[in-house]
């Protein structure tokens, strides 16, 4: 199937054939619970539908446009990528062992701060970056933090997990030679969305740590697809491949969800990433998807505020299912500077 036909099918709401996501793996049967803990609740297997960003007036900023460099192989490259997605043969990046262990450890209810500190010490570069972020103004370090144990003591287990996870994921996924500036903007948006998701979850008394990770990874399919385009197109991929942005828009949620399955992340996180542009389709995990959807748009608002964006937020479809009233939204919007500082610290 040609990529432009595939996009046309999706625009008309046709399901793209793909392998069902079952959320198999460690923690796959946990849910976004009302008390912040993981509740066992099986997620029915279903196909992931490729979908693009919701067209909410005033909330979406136009994609960054680089000078197009037409390549005679562009249609072939994108067709090959779409074929891999549709047949379930997409090669997904593996996390380094330390990063994978961090993700696993931070989801464990039995993990201690000492265990996390010991794990971080095995990767000197990661440990140094964690200390750098821990010493940033965003975390209110009055005196220098010189050890991971000290960082764990001052910041707490949850914050240390957030920092370590963010640094580990960025180092593996959000890097591509020749596209550094674009990926830096993409990462900043992801970090901002993760921080907003945490604040929304705190307001709703939900799983704050899980919400942060969902927000952080909501667009992770974009850099994965970008890396795949680069690999298939060769040196020409340093410039934008004609039509690639449309492929990213339509497939990033599906690819991101598949990536989380391959990393053995919980089923509710997979559903939130998969459905963050159509939260009502997330079934029993719709609340998590709505949190990510609102966090995504709050991040866009943070990056480009204005009367139009503010008006759109006050009519956001997530407010009703999340039981957020006008005063709740006002309280969230007042956190903009704090959210920006926290996102900057991990950017």
What does this structure look like?
The protein is an all-alpha fold. It has a single domain, classed as Hypothetical protein af1432, CATH 1.10.3210. It has 16 helices and two strands. It has helices at residues 3-11, 74-86, 97-106, 113-120, 124-134, 148-155, 157-173, 180-204, 208-217, 221-233, 244-262, 267-274, 286-303, 307-314, 326-333, 336-345, and strands spanning 30-32, 38-40. A two-stranded antiparallel sheet has the order 1-2. Strand 1 and strand 2 form a beta hairpin. Helix 3 (97-106) packs antiparallel against helix 7 (157-173), helix 4 (113-120) packs antiparallel against helix 6 and helix 8 packs across helix 16 (336-345). The longest helix is centred in the middle third of the chain and has 25 residues, at 180-204. It is globular and about 55 Å long. Mean pLDDT is 77; it is low at 1-73.
Uncertain parts: 1-73
Helix and strand content put the structural class at mainly alpha
Please estimate the helix content.
Answer: 55-70%
- Determine the mean pLDDT: 77
**Tally of structural domains:** 1
Strands of the widest sheet, in order across it, are 1-2
The portion of residues forming beta strands comes to under 5%
Shape: globular
Number of strands: 2
Give the full name of the CATH homologous superfamily.
Answer: Hypothetical protein af1432
The helix count comes to 16
Do you know the CATH topology?
Answer: Hypothetical protein af1432
CATH architecture: Orthogonal Bundle
End-to-end Cα distance, whole Å, is 38 Å
CATH class: Mainly Alpha
* Biggest sheet character: 2 strands, antiparallel
What is the H/E order?
A: HEEHHHHHHHHHHHHHHH
* Cα-atom radius of gyration: 20 Å
């Amino acid at each position: 199937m040609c990529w432009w036909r595939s996009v046309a099918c999706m625009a008309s709401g046709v399901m793209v054939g793909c392998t069902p996501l079952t959320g198999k793996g460690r923690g796959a049967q946990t849910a976004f619970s009302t008390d912040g803990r993981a509740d066992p609740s099986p997620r029915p297997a279903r196909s992931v539908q490729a979908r693009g960003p919701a067209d909410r007036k005033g909330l979406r900023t136009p994609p960054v446009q680089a000078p197009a460099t037409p390549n005679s192989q562009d249609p072939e490259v994108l067709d090959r990528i779409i074929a891999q997605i549709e047949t379930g043969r997409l090669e997904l990046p593996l996390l380094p062992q330390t990063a994978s262990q961090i993700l696993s450890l931070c989801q464990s209810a039995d993990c201690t701060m000492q265990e996390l500190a010991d794990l971080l010490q095995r990767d000197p570069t990661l440990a140094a970056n964690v200390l750098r972020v821990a010493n940033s103004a965003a975390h209110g370090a009055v005196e220098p933090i010189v050890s991971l144990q000290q960082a764990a003591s001052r910041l707490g287990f949850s914050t240390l997990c957030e920092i370590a996870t963010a640094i580990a994921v960025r180092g593996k996924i959000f890097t591509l030679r020749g596209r550094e500036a674009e990926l830096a903007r993409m990462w900043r948006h992801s970090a901002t969305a993760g921080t907003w998701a945490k604040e929304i979850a705190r307001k709703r008394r939900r799983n704050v740590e899980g919400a942060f990770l969902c927000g952080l990874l909501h667009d992770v399919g974009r850099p994965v697809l970008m890396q795949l385009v680069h690999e298939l197109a060769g040196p020409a991929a340093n410039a934008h491949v004609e039509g690639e942005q449309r492929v990213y828009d339509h497939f990033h949620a599906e690819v991101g969800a598949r990536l989380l399955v391959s990393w053995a992340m919980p089923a509710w996180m997979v559903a939130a990433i998969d459905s963050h542009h159509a939260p009502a389709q997330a079934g029993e995990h719709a609340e998590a998807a709505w949190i990510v959807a609102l966090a995504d748009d709050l991040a866009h608002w943070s990056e480009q505020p204005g009367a139009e964006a503010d008006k759109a937020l006050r009519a956001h479809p997530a407010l009703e299912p999340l039981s957020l009233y006008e005063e709740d939204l006002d309280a969230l919007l007042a956190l903009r500077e704090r959210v920006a500082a926290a996102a900057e610290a991990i950017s």
